TrEMBL record:
This is GntR family transcriptional regulator. It comes from Niallia nealsonii. Pfam families: Aminotran_1_2 (PF00155), GntR (PF00392). Keywords: Aminotransferase, DNA-binding, Pyridoxal phosphate, Transcription, Transcription regulation, Transferase. Residues 4-72 form the HTH gntR-type domain. It comes from the Bacteria. PROSITE patterns: HTH_GNTR.
Amino acid sequence: MTRIPLYQQVCDYIIQRIKTGEWEEGSRLPSIRTLASQLGVNRLTVLKAFQVLKDSQYVYAKDKSGYYVQKNADNQKKQQSTLNEPKIYSYIKNSHLSDIHNKPVNYMFSTSLIDPKLLPNRYLSEHVKEVFDQYPQLLGTYAPVKGDKELIKGFSAYFQKYYNFYIHEESILITTGAQQGIDIIAKVFVQSRDYVLIDSPTYSAAVDIFLNRGAQLLPIDLTTKGFSLEQVESYMKKYKPKLFYMNPTFHNPTGYTVPTEQRKQLVELAERYQCILVEDDSFHEIYFVKAPPAPIFTYDPCGYVIYLRSFSKYIAPGLRICALLAHPILIKWLVKGKALADNGTPLLNQKAFLYYLTSERVQRHMEKLRIALQLRKEAMEKELSLKQFQWNSPAGGLNLWVKLHEDINIEKFKIKALEQQISIVPGNICDPLARSIPYIRLSYSFLNEQEIKEGIQLLNEVHESLKV
Ligand SMILES: Cc1ncc(COP(=O)(O)O)c(C=O)c1O
């Protein structure tokens, strides 16, 4: 891996804040001492960065007073256009996925959400009315920050019954979706300049969350065979990362699954190098033929794995329920992080979800959902196979990770697709270092087979029109 010199990383950090307006023109930069301690680097490194930025006229120095953001034409223009706008942290401006989802289009291949028509909506809503009868004071109180006691008990029984592993109630925290779980983990364990290993490609919101903490991301390539454990070990040894975030089962965006034999070895490495594994298992139940291997969490006797099992993708997406499982020593701190985030996931959601979790009807729904998703996946693959696309057919999950013909410029492809009312996720958004890679993510879960057919036919035309 080529490493960017430390002073250059500090320059990038400062430039980003100037460009987004977070540090305004004419304002004083933090002192060398403050920035060095905030970023965990030597003062000389910050001094060198300031000098480089001064030479390139991003900042200027005032005698005995420090460094200030330069006023220049570019910034001037930006100030006019952003007048009255609040100062926005750079990472928020860099969260691209929500921008893509927000554009209304006819063929939404960018969202890995289940088509609401595939969910038992009437059944779900009927039960919500009963929840109010059963708990008349439901809206009059907060939920415990750690989660509703009944639901926690329900999760413990659920993992025992369906996955054959015992999890003590003390080790369970309910979060508002896996996304909140990742955010809390990052806030609790990651500080500015900490190293974080991350699967590559990856779930793009995770990248944004860790970058927001000021983390330095080290991508670990995920292939059809899993990770290179040599790479994992050498990075753990060299960089002593705080965390390794991964989505090892029907991975978003590739659909790959880390094989069973690697799961145990990953835990051994985590213990040896004292690096917490964050296992995001949001797609565990979405398989087509065979259930996936047991979670990495189940191989961990010592508490080095934090497990996130979201149910957003297939039971009741609107309820935003996720079970975070971890050693009680870690749970203690994560509960504090959760209290700061929202003081507890809404009680109504938790009570309603408990019913679905234990319902036989929901289990039967899962069987139908798997068949429907497989048909949609096959419909997409059939149309894609007519052109020069390449992908590995996934055994589960909601997405295809598709390689485009090498002549194609991805940015142009995305824009042309949008003109045809099609949204896709370009590969660079899923790359932890935002590198341009010749891949796109297409979700087959949101549209029906006919819509998929029409949309991919149009996408094939876009592809042809851009080939040189
Ligand atoms: C890998 C992964 N983790 C987490 C999430 C977010 O899940 P939730 O809706 O439970 O917050 C997603 C959503 O797409 C995802 O793909």
